[in-house]
Amino acid sequence: MVFVPCLIAFGIVYLMLRTNPVLDPFLEFNAGIVSAALSLFGVSSEVSGATVISSMFSFYVIAECTSLLFTGIFISAVLAWPATKKRKLNGIAIGVAGLFLLNLIRMITLFYIGSSMEGLFDIIHFFVWPIVMVVVTIGLWLFWTK
């Protein structure tokens, strides 16, 4: 049983760091990536710390806005599965990148929903996207185990 201890260890570290300033550079990086991605779609925005600011919509990136939780779950599952170290490292690298990119898509879609369909924002933000992230995290792991 490696999964549960890994998940508990990750959870403890996450809870200690989620509001710690040591995470600020990562939060600011996420905000910067979102702003850069939005510019590819013609949206003018700027970043101030971990806040993406636009005339359309603005939001502040906190730890829960990142892919950290899902990445921790995915890594715990990979470490628990019987595989070679090389295969585990490859799986972790692909999973971390995939979950980060999906989360980038999540934040961009939430930006557009927040700017044009405010009434749907909370439903999509707190219910739809978390379900999508859980399903994809499990799906990535199941794909990796094959």
Which key phrases capture this entry?
about 150 residues; single chain; mainly alpha; elongated; 3 strands; three-stranded antiparallel sheet
Low-pLDDT parts are: none
Number of domains: 1
For the termini, the CA-CA separation is: 20 Å
Helix content range: over 70%
List SSEs in N-to-C order: HHEEEHHH
| Global Rg | 16 Å
- Average pLDDT confidence is 95
How many β-strands, per DSSP? 3
> Helix- and strand-based class?
mainly alpha
Main β-sheet: number of strands, strand sense, barrel status? 3 strands, antiparallel
Strand content: 5-15%
- The dominant shape is elongated
Give the spatial strand order of the biggest sheet: 1-2-3
Number of helical segments with 4 or more residues: 5
Write a structural description.
The chain is mainly alpha-helical and 146 residues long. It has helices at 3-17, 24-40, 68-80, 85-116, 118-145, and strands at 46-48, 51-53, 59-60. It has one domain. A 3-stranded antiparallel β-sheet has the order 1-2-3. β1 and β2 form a beta hairpin. The protein is elongated and about 50 Å long. The mean pLDDT is 95.
